[in-house]
Design goal:
By secondary structure, the protein is an alpha+beta fold. It has 2 domains: 1-42; 45-247, Jelly Rolls (Sandwich). Helix content is 19%, strand content 30%. It is built from 3 helices and 13 strands; from the N terminus they run ααβββββββββββαββ. The strands form 2 sheets. Strands 1, 3, 4, 6, 9, 10, 11 and 13 form an 8-stranded antiparallel β-sheet that branches. Strands 2-5-12-7-8 form a 5-stranded antiparallel β-sheet, with no helix packed on it.
């Protein structure tokens, strides 16, 4: 009888311990989340837009966005009626070498772009005066696609062409992964799982590309390696989601 009593007592003790387990699990879960946040700040992915707010963004040379809204977990730009000027969106933080991953969806006949190395300057009213651009476009309908292969979706705008047939039609989501790596002097654009563009990001080859482009005489264009990421207001509705960045 003693053995049975001891066994029963041990079982009751274990049961009582298990009843307290949810509280301990909650603590472990919180600790894991904090660890993940630390990892994001030390070379892992950092979420720039998670579908809930614009906490990591502001208007170029401005403050709070008014034409960028969170709609169904996406960051949607819709130009206001009778507006003056543009409302480009830029990150609060600056970046040098990185991998940027995002989804985008353009409206019919629409135009936008993702820029890097952007410098905010009251004397310059657009981010493209300083930052290079990866094109976001309705290749089928927007006239810019007819202006040359360096203006297609996925292209390093006006410098390196993107192939046809990779981008999805207007109204459908595309996924871009943009790598800017100054240590290895390489830029890569992967669109919908296919590598579409590679290019140098500095040095004589980069300078030669700029010299042959519309940016040849732009004094401030691509002169600084570290800068903001920008999402372009080109006057057409565009949506972005799942935006994250990993610093190299």
């Amino acid at each position: 009888m003693k053995k049975i009593t001891l066994t029963l007592g041990l079982a009751l003790a274990l049961f009582a311990s298990c009843k307290d387990q949810p509280k301990n699990s909650e603590k472990e879960e919180v600790a894991l989340t904090e660890t993940e946040e630390i990892q994001q700040e030390t070379g892992e992915w950092t979420v720039l837009f998670d579908g809930s707010n614009l906490d990591h963004w502001h208007v170029y040379n401005g403050a709070e966005p008014t034409q960028w809204k969170v709609v169904d977990d996406a960051l949607v730009f819709t130009p206001a009626d009778n507006r003056e000027g543009t409302e480009n969106l830029v990150t609060d933080s600056t970046y040098t070498s990185f991998v940027l991953s995002l989804d985008w969806k353009i409206s019919e006949g629409g135009n936008s772009g993702v820029l890097w190395g952007v410098q905010e300057d009251p004397k310059l009213n657009e981010p493209y005066y300083t930052g290079a651009e990866i094109q976001v476009l309705d290749d089928e309908r927007h006239p810019d696609a007819k202006a040359g292969t360096t203006h297609r979706s996925g292209a390093l705008y006006d410098m390196i062409a993107a192939p046809e047939g990779v981008v999805k039609p207007a109204g459908e989501w595309n996924t871009n992964e943009i790598t800017i790596d100054y240590d290895n002097n390489k830029g890569i654009v992967v669109m919908n799982g296919e590598e579409v563009v590679t290019f140098p990001v500095t040095g004589e080859e980069w300078d030669a590309m700029v010299a042959k482009s519309k940016f040849a005489d732009w004094e401030a264009f691509a002169k600084v390696k570290s800068g903001k990421i920008a999402l372009q207001d080109h006057g057409n509705q565009v949506s972005y989601r799942n935006i994250k960045i990993k610093q190299l």
